[in-house]
Amino acid sequence: MRKRYTSIAISLHWLIAILLIGLIAIGKYMNELEETDHLRFELIQWHKSFGILVLLLVLIRIAWRLTHRPPRLSAAMPLWERFAASATHVFLYLLVLVVPLSGWIMVSASPLNLATELFGAIPWPHLPIATANGFTESDRKTVSELSWTVHHFLANGLLILVLLHIGAALRHQFILKDNLLSRMWIGTEHRRHMDLSHALLPGLLLAAAMALFLWEKAAPDVNDAALSASEPSAVTVVDAVNFTATQMGEPLRGTFDTVEIELVIDNEAPARSSLQATVHTGSINTGDGQIDSTVVTADWFASDQYPLAEFRSTVVAPVAGTNEFSVTGDLTIRDTSRPVTFTLSITDGVASGEFPISRSDYGVGTGGQDEFIEEEVTIRFATALK
Ligand code: HEM
Ligand code: HEM
């Protein structure tokens, strides 16, 4: 009968533990930052990437746990303590699953509908909440808010449970002195007792994680620089344009996959602030191939003839005392321009806005299509501040 966890279980335990502590620390820290802070946006992207990594590692860990029995606890341990240990472990497993899952649901249901890319490189799908049948915009908002609450409370619950768990491990190590920790410590099977050298690897890893976090924390506030610089700064970190139309009484949502947005906020010379967006109409994506191939035809966007729809601002005026700007400009679709005014707001380092348009103003779908797609369409967009 083995006396220690397998080296796979031990490696996963410590890797997940370090990542979790980092995730909770970064989660708390980014939540304290101003909505308009670009660092907040950057940290959220890192947080999502590491959070999904933890979710995947936890799934592997649970599969390993179910196929490899842990070493038996000492018969001398009182029943209540075994029960408390098992219960804590079950809840720890449950929470390290539900917390990242609720985060994933939160970003999938977010009205901003920003794409998630793990570590800036691997596209990660959203759960199909955005496109689920019968889900209205307000349902999505409710799901997004609810999953935020779950994420926030359970992450705090996880933190408390982890502290209890660490407390129990330290009690065994320093009060009961039964060397229970060696069952989960890095080292070889025959080295039963811990010495300082065992602490080297986890210590180094923890120090590296902390250093990374502190380095992030000390990084200059890019957004402050952008907002106060007289040189305007343009951005294309994440650009998303999506829309909601009404198709035969049901919401029809979609995105334009190829868009470029350039936002310049110049606090020194507000008149130099501007917002420009270019949308490739042929890149429309509603998740329904039939609709996508219909709306690019002559009666709708006529994408062959008018491949681009464009927005050019004429005024971007800050709204005093808020994170908002009032934007006025011209929207051009099918070579027809109309004035549009809307509010641009900044949340989590992302600037976003929405406004309704009447599609027939632009000659889109004029061949008696009103019963198919209703006249009013809501356009929504988002872009990251730099
Ligand atoms: C930070 C997040 C942590 C999480 C989520 C976590 C989770 C867990 C879980 C779920 C188990 C049960 C393993 C199983 O039987 O399947 C476990 C075991 C264990 N953990 Fe942690 N742990 C964390 C941190 C720590 C820390 C910092 C220590 C030490 C100070 C520690 C010490 C131990 C020990 C000694 C065991 C083995 C208990 C036994 O022999 O039955 N853990 N941990
Ligand atoms: C086990 C993994 C995770 C842990 C421990 C964790 C923990 C946290 C914590 C502590 C916060 C701050 C909230 C508060 O103050 O209580 C937070 C916020 C957040 N988390 Fe996670 N998280 C994890 C995984 C994820 C995943 C996988 C995603 C998305 C894919 C995610 C998305 C977010 C977002 C977007 C916020 C900020 C919400 C806002 O704007 O206020 N998290 N997380």
Biggest sheet, open or closed, and with what strands and sense? 10 strands, antiparallel
Specify the number of helices: 7
Radius of gyration: 26 Å
Number of domains: 2
CATH class of the largest domain: Mainly Alpha
What name is given to the CATH topology of the largest domain?
A: Fumarate Reductase Cytochrome B subunit
Ions and ligands? protoporphyrin IX containing FE
Question: What percent of residues adopt helix (DSSP H or I)?
Answer: 40-55%
Strand content: 15-25%
What does this structure look like?
Helices cover 41% and strands 23% of the residues. The protein starts with 6 loop residues before the first helix and ends with a strand. The chain has 386 residues and is α+β, with helices and mostly antiparallel strands. The strands form two sheets. The protein has a ten-stranded antiparallel β-sheet, with helices on one face. The radius of gyration is 26 Å and the shape is elongated. The protein folds into two domains: 7-219, Fumarate Reductase Cytochrome B subunit (Up-down Bundle), CATH 1.20.950; 225-384, Beta Barrel (Lipocalin), CATH 2.40.128.110. It contains seven helices and twelve strands. The chain has helices spanning 7-32, 38-67, 79-109, 137-176, 200-218, 222-228, 289-295; strands spanning 116-118, 122-124, 239-247, 250-256, 259-264, 274-280, 284-285, 308-319, 324-333, 336-347, 350-358, 376-384.
